[in-house]
Amino acid sequence: MKKETALITGASSGIGFEIAKCLAKKGFDLVITARNKKKLEHAEKILSNEPEVSVEVIVADLHDPVAPQSIYTFCQKKGIEISLLVNNAGYAIPAPFDQTPMEEEEKFIRVLALAVIALTKLFVRDMIADGKGRIMMISSVAAYAPPSRIQTLYGPVKTFINRLSEGININYNNRGITSTAVCPGYTVTNFHTASGVQDEMDRVPSFMKKTAYSVAEEAVIATLKGKKVCIPSKTFKLIVFLLKIVPHSLFPFFSKRLAPGRYDKNSLF
Prior knowledge:
The strands form two sheets. The chain has a seven-stranded parallel sheet, with helices on both faces. Strands 7-8 form a two-stranded parallel sheet. It is an alpha/beta fold. It has one domain (about 5-260): NAD(P)-binding Rossmann-like Domain (Rossmann fold, 3-Layer(aba) Sandwich), CATH 3.40.50.720. It is built from ten helices and nine strands. Helix 1 crosses helix 8 and helix 4 runs parallel beside helix 5 (about 155-170). The longest helix has 29 residues, at about 100-130. About 45% of the residues lie in helices and about 15% in strands. Helix 1 (about 15-25) links the parallel strand 1 (about 5-10) and strand 2.
């Protein structure tokens, strides 16, 4: 039986790296990509320790409009068939919306949205030809939350990712392809430091902070089962349920302890 191969973007650290580890333990060969060559090569060494797992590495910066095609061409030239695509690469802008150059916003949208569209479009065609395939899209609980005071575009873009994943399922489930939108909450990685919101993260109650491994484990299980949406942990399943029924006007009251800095009296709902 031919081994399956997964492609993971943003695989050098955090949730992406843990997803790669989970898939390697399940016997998947891997193609891992990220923009930091040194970190990516370090990840390769660790992942290659798993018995009988092949790991291919491609350094790519999804800021670059040609990066998705470069990744796809790399796989084609190597004769690698991707049966599981993990759109994980993250990006955040620490500056307020009014102070951010448009060029930075374009990079943000390219990494979190346009690159996801491009990679999915490229690889889904091969999945259709093969009659099966899985796609995992790393979204966020922020997709369900009202607009935030910080990282203005993050929630709206993640809402788009959820809808894109839904659209893939509507159009291609009958072709043997499933897409899973994974919506983690607060996860302990270096993302918050890079995003300029580590102070807010430090004030989040410990029970709301989940490990990247636990998020990855649930995400992989849900994707292999073909679930449409995965919200890792009972904590955030409950929070998403409440987000759907609690009036937005009450969020500043609840968020003082649960989501410090995200909402205040000046937030617009």
